[in-house]
Amino acid sequence: CCSVIVESLGGLLEYFNDWAYVQCAVRGVPFMDATRITFSLIMCANMESVQAALLLNFVFWFGAVGVAAIGALATALVAAALYGAGAAAVGASVGFAIGLVAGAGALGIVNSGVKALLVCWADSPDRLRETHPEFHEALMQKTLAMQ
């Protein structure tokens, strides 16, 4: 029971840290200031609705595992063709590990970009309306649909 609570709190802190690091990157502030800014955004701005519907981390890991599965399949086929059926399992394991690292690295860039966009929108929605009205309208529709 206690381990579940500790793991849940750890997950929440890690999730909060992701958003705080976005503040560090976007605003160039120290981490402690970024945590205060992040907490304010979560409590006061559009972030409550965005976070409720945000499946970004799920999509990120699902994509990384998909890349890993493709890597495992490809290396298993190559290993089986070159070295026989016994090497296919080793090839699949190596391919899965390499694919997971490559997929997580590539999709991590997209993950960070989307989080930066959402933080900037929550902080100043008018700026997004001026520069990219179609994105602003889509975010507003999603936010209103959740309320």
Automatic annotation (TrEMBL):
The chain crosses the membrane at residues 53-83, 89-110. Its main location: membrane. The keyword Transmembrane helix applies. PANTHER family: CHOLINE TRANSPORTER-LIKE (SLC FAMILY 44), PROTEIN PNS1. It comes from the Eukaryota. It is found in: Cell membrane; Membrane. It is a multi-pass membrane protein. GO terms for cellular component: plasma membrane. Keywords: Membrane, Transmembrane, Transmembrane helix. One of its GO terms (molecular function) is transmembrane transporter activity. Signal peptide: none annotated. This is Choline transporter-like protein. Pfam families: Choline_transpo. InterPro entries: Choline_transptr-like (IPR007603). Belongs to the CTL (choline transporter-like) family. Choline transporter. It comes from Zooxanthella nutricula.
